[in-house]
């Protein structure tokens, strides 16, 4: 039997249209809303075909269309609430680690891995592509996002999505847009001017969508300029489907739909997690809106067309996901390990403390359950591989999500990577016991952790007092204390001056222990660069005060309590992260883009040019140290008039053998240079002189140049 969409030579749009033409109204409505495919309360059951995941929409077998099985998220195929007992998955390092790699090829490879696992577990939609700008350094989900910079975020998220979709699995990008904090995530109204929005958060999504062509976009829980993101005409119709001509579908976040007619008119196509909402808006109320002529059949058809065309475009219908496909978890773990290795940032290394020499006699490892594994972030993205250590976590949407340590023990890996006669572990719970254990050791490696989760922002920027005291006391008596951070974002480091070596390992995933040990002992030459600024204190932030989490709810759905509150993001506008620090002339603890290596690099001969609109910067990079290593060449630009602070306009990761030189040329992304003109509704580059410089981080220029750019305007119409 053949189906209408199988006619040779049809485009994805034509294939989709052929199916829509045959669908009944009930078949269409069955795809417009759906409950979470996880039993939430006793007695809840799933349709027999549902695998058990974030969502399931039934197959249309007579038309050869498989069921939609949707799973979370960006960091692996998660099984929220333990919905698929025994089904374990590979945990990627947090997206911050991916951001720190500055390596789009790696993003694509980790995306492919994720897509392969999703496909082999029977899923054809992966709720991945976290692409929010990290505006709020204390945000609970920052570990699911990539960076504070639109170019880095857009490029990396785009490549990750491209990797996922290459495996016939649709990916989302989420949570569109300005969904910067968890506290009151269903009540927070992000206020920001159009130009600032276009030049920051929207630009990250725009680039990710250009590069990755994700099949779906998920708006956030929050409001943007007074309207919920899921019924925000400006975001969904004017920008996404209008200016960007986005052809895919818009699915709400789970329990984030607030209306039928308004939402559809604004551009929402699917009500996800409808059982968490006050009402299944996209069933009876939407049917009534059709009867009353508020919504037309053509609008409904367009909503379905968008879903189907995305599925056809990545081959999800032609190559249906194969549940039970053999998955090579050992290979996947190596991919996750490589990501963690590339994302670890060496923040301090006095007197070449690192790499540790292999022939130490006794090493003491302390804290953060480093004997068992490495910390993971919590919430819908949390993957729990077999053998994970689980502790009490957080309740969100009525589901208990544990605090998980992925089973990749740094202690075991340290033992494997060193020739030390003795490697001991102490929990760190008792500082005195840790001091005792450290006596007579050659090196002390302290693991310090900071747990964040969906629905749980960090309160302040500090590690726990206990961990700070532990590090203080040990570094006061021991000369060789190495600190390894496992954090969901920036933290303050009051003991920094007393510690000779410091690594930021983020949440490093299934290969995390081995990756950390690889850097500690020099098998891996660290090359990560900070994708976020580390502030010296919360006082330096555009929003030093946090909303008290006890006054708001973070939970979506029926139980939304509390008042909508505004967050004025025009304070910093488009000057997020390092741009804010430059504008305020503040010195952070560590700037965006910073990271050390075990080798050194030299930069020479910066050339700038603009030919037929294209701006390029070229320079020669030399590895002048004694080991092979990778550097991230970073190019920043700022108008000499100071109209806006420096912006990262190009980057490239380059690996060089010792003594090797390479001439590289980087194209500058014009949308990062331009400013958005809200009156004319277009981008414009002002004719004036610009400082364009290569820097080792956002605050440390090395090669400086100037170029007068010619005026340019460009838009969408
Ligand atoms: C999260 C989404 C996720 C969805 C489905 C929501 O709580 O915000 O990122 O995809 O749940 O699990």
Task: Tell me what the structure shows.
This protein is of the alpha/beta class. The strands form seven sheets. The chain has a seven-stranded mixed beta sheet with strand order 1-2-3-4-5-7-10. Strands 11-19-18-17-12-16 form a six-stranded mixed beta sheet, sandwiched between helices. Strands 9-8-6-20 form a four-stranded mixed beta sheet, with no helix packed on it. Helix 12 packs across helix 16 and helix 14 packs parallel to helix 15. The longest helix has 17 residues. It is globular. Bound molecules: beta-D-glucopyranose. Beta-D-glucopyranose binds next to loops.
What does the secondary structure layout of this molecule look like, with pairings?
Layout: H1 12-20, H2 25-29, E1 36-37, E2 53-57, E3 68-72, H3 95-101, H4 104-120, E4 125-127, H5 150-165, E5 170-176, E6 188-191, H6 194-198, H7 201-212, E7 216-219, E8 223-224, E9 227-228, H8 233-243, E10 249-250, H9 261-266, H10 284-291, H11 297-313, H12 329-343, E11 345-349, E12 362-366, E13 374-375, E14 389-396, E15 399-406, H13 410-417, E16 422-426, H14 431-438, E17 443-449, H15 465-477, E18 481-486, E19 501-504, H16 512-521, E20 565-568, H17 578-583, E21 601-611, E22 614-623, E23 629-639, E24 647-656, E25 661-667, H18 670-673, E26 675-677, E27 682-685, E28 688-697, E29 700-709, E30 712-714
Parallel strand pairs: 3-4, 4-5, 5-7, 6-8, 6-20, 7-10, 12-16, 12-17, 17-18, 18-19
Antiparallel strand pairs: 1-2, 2-3, 8-9, 11-19, 13-15, 14-15, 21-22, 22-25, 23-24, 23-28, 26-27, 27-30, 28-29
The structure holds beta-D-glucopyranose (BGC).
Beta-D-glucopyranose (BGC) binds next to loops.
């Amino acid at each position: 039997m053949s189906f209408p969409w199988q006619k040779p030579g049809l485009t994805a749009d034509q294939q989709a249209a052929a199916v829509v033409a045959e669908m009944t109204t009930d078949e269409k409505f069955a795809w417009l809303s759906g409950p979470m495919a996880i039993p939430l309360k006793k007695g809840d059951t799933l349709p027999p075909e549902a695998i058990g995941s974030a969502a399931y929409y039934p197959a249309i077998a007579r038309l050869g269309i498989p069921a939609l099985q949707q799973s979370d998220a960006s960091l692996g195929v998660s099984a929220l609430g333990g919905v698929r007992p025994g089904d374990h998955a590979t945990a990627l390092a947090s997206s911050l680690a991916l951001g720190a790699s500055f390596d789009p090829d790696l993003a694509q490879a980790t995306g492919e891995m994720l897509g392969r696992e999703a496909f082999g577990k029977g899923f054809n939609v992966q709720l991945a592509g976290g692409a929010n700008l990290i505006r709020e350094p204390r945000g609970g989900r920052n570990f699911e996002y990539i960076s504070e910079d639109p170019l880095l975020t857009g490029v990396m998220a785009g490549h990750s999505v491209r990797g996922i979709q290459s495996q016939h699995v649709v990916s989302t990008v989420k949570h569109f847009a300005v969904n910067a904090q968890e506290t009151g995530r269903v009540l927070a109204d992000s206020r920001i001017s159009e130009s600032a929005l276009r030049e920051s958060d929207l630009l990250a999504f725009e680039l990710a969508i250009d590069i990755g062509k994700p099949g779906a976009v998920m708006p956030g829980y929050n409001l943007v300029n007074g309207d919920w993101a899921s019924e925000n005409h400006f975001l969904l119709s004017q920008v996404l489907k209008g200016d960007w001509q986005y052809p895919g579908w818009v699915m709400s976040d789970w329990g984030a739909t607030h209306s039928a007619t308004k939402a559809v008119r604004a551009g929402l196509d699917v009500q996800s997690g409808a059982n968490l909402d006050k009402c299944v808006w996209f069933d009876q109320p939407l049917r009534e809106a059709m009867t009353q002529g508020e919504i037309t059949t053509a609008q409904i058809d367009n909503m379905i067309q968008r879903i189907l065309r995305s599925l056809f475009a990545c081959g999800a219908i032609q190559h249906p996901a194969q549940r039970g496909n053999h998955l090579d978890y050992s290979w996947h773990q190596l991919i996750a390990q490589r990501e963690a290795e590339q994302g670890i940032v060496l923040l301090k290394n006095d007197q070449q403390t690192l790499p540790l020499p292999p022939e130490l006699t006794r090493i003491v490892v302390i804290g953060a359950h480093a004997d068992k594994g490495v910390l993971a972030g919590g919430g819908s993205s949390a993957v729990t591989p077999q053998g994970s250590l689980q502790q009490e976590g957080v309740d969100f949407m009525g589901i208990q999500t544990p605090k998980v340590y992925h089973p990749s023990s740094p202690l075991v890996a340290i033992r494997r990577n060193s020739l030390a006669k003795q490697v001991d572990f102490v929990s760190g719970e008792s500082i005195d016991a840790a001091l005792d254990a450290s006596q007579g050791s050659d090196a002390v490696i302290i693991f310090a952790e900071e747990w964040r989760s969906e629905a749980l922002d960090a309160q302040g920027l500090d590690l726990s007092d206990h961990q700070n005291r532990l590090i203080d006391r040990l570094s006061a008596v021991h000369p060789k204390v190495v600190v390894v951070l496992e954090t969901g974002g920036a933290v303050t480091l009051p003991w920094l001056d007393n510690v000779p070596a410091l690594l930021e390992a983020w949440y490093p995933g299934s290969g995390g222990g081995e990756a950390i040990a690889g850097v500690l002992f020099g098998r891996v030459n660290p090359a990560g660069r900070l994708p976020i600024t580390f502030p010296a204190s919360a006082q330096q932030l555009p929003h030093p005060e946090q909303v008290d989490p006890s006054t708001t709810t973070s939970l979506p759905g029926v139980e939304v309590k509390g008042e909508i509150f505004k967050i004025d993001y025009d304070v910093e506008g488009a000057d997020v992260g390092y741009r804010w620090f430059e504008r305020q002339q503040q010195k952070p603890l560590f700037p965006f883009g910073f990271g050390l290596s075990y080798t050194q690099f030299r930069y020479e001969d910066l050339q700038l040019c603009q030919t037929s609109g294209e701006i390029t910067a070229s320079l020669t990079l030399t590895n002048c140290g004694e080991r092979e290593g990778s550097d991230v060449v970073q190019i920043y630009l700022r108008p000499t008039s100071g109209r806006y602070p420096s912006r990262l306009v190009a980057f490239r990761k380059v690996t060089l053998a010792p003594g090797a030189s390479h001439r590289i040329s980087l194209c500058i992304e014009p949308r990062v240079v331009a400013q958005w003109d809200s009156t004319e509704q277009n981008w414009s580059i002002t004719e004036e002189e610009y400082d364009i410089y290569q820097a080792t981080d956002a605050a440390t220029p090395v090669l400086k140049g100037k170029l007068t750019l010619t005026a340019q305007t460009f838009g969408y119409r």
